[in-house]
Amino acid sequence: MSESENRCERIAQLKSLLAERIVILDGAMGTMVQNLKLSEDDFRGALFADYHMDIKGNNDILVMTQPQLIRDIHLSFLRQGVDIIETNSFNATTIAQADYDMQDQVTALNIAAAKVAREACIQAQQEDGKPRFVGGVLGPTNRTASISPDVNDPGKRNTHFDELVTAYIQATEALLKGGADVILIETIFDTLNAKAAIFAVKSVEERELTPLAASANWNI
Question: Per the CATH hierarchy, to which homologous superfamily does domain 3-216 belong?
Answer without folding.
Answer: Homocysteine-binding-like domain (3.20.20.330)
